[in-house]
Amino acid sequence: MTIYNFDEIIDRRNTNSLKYDFARERGFPEGLLPMWVADMDFRAPQPVLDRLVAVAQHGIFGYTETKDDYVAAVANWFSQRHDYQFEPSWLKKAPGVVFALALAIRAFTKPGEAILIQSPVYYPFTGCALDNDRIVIRNQLVLNNNRYEIDFDDFERKIVDHKIKLFLLCNPHNPIGRVWTREELLTMGDICLKHGCLIFSDEIHGDFIFPGHRHIVFGSLAPELADLALIATAPSKTFNLAGLQIANLFIKNPKIKGAFSAEVRATGYSQLNSMGLAAAQSAYETGAEWLDQLMVYLKGNLDLTREFFQTNLPKVPLIEPEGTYLFWFDCRNLGLTPQEVNQRILEKGKVWLDDGAIFGPGGEGFQRINAACPRSVLREALEKIAVALA
Ligand SMILES: Cc1ncc(COP(=O)(O)O)c(C=O)c1O
Known about the structure:
Shape: globular
CATH superfamily of the largest domain: Type I PLP-dependent aspartate aminotransferase-like (Major domain)
Number of strands: 15
Distance between the termini: 44 Å
Strand content: 5-15%
Structural class: alpha/beta
Helix content: 40-55%
Bound molecules: pyridoxal-5'-phosphate
CATH class of the largest domain: Alpha Beta
Order of helices and strands: HEHHEHEHEEEHEHEHEHEHHHEEHEEEH
Radius of gyration: 21 Å
Strand order of the largest sheet: 2-10-9-8-7-3-4
Low-confidence stretches: none
């Protein structure tokens, strides 16, 4: 067994890393500790690195497709980790989940029509809808006793009132960290079924689940719900391969798959990046051991963060995440405006977080920290945040 050392600090500066090397271009001062965009400061599993080296050494990067062994690698992963089985014909590869989300919007709605999201949510949900001239309708998530819940009456009312044909589900939900339960998913699914609304289920964070919770693949709920859904997954978050641009969708309904595939064809995109495909297959075949160790480490980072907030920032509740490595905390009781909180974190703390406001209504006054980094770096960031907000 390989023991991975997640404490190792790997210098990512000057690698063209979005997280480390583009502060000025994105309107931030230089020298901040970056704890924002959702990639990890950990090296991918060693067998994946070995596979990429072998591909590179072969030296020919021609057009590449996948065979049965690729499908088997993905199928085994989802069967073993999530008890979800799909037919090979349901699999559709894409260069990213956001790419797929944008194309689903184009395939299943028309300009001027409304899309349903649950706010606050990963900001491309809104961006892709608006960029495609769709209207964004929000089913506002409700914070009750420090835990977010769904207002199902509002959910159904919005679908009916706005003739919603497409709902963008985020499960586990970024940034609020909920792993939706079977009951919650079934309730949303049944409402969508009743009103003929398709579901794009973004499950990119589905492998990051903390003890006591379980990720339910939307397509595993019931056959009639699977028929309404596009399930979007990717090895990119799970194994830290985002720059290799690969996602796998499971689309059971042939009509939906056909319409989605036609939309992909219309973009001119066909074969995926050969390095991405090699890395994805290798990760699903060999990455379980690495991920198991990583989850223990991330749980340690969560424990540290929770304790740190309780001890040093008692007025700033951490919303206990059930999944993801993105932790969401509530700065509304500090007697500061959200702008003042931002300013202090940036100017006094010199830490780069994601301001909750970018996730849409309900996000203002919150901050999101990416905790997928060596523990010493996380501790340093938390200490800086505490000084900034003191
Ligand atoms: C919920 C969610 N979906 C999608 C993505 C990005 O996916 P991709 O890089 O495959 O487009 C992210 C990245 O942070 C995310 O948090």
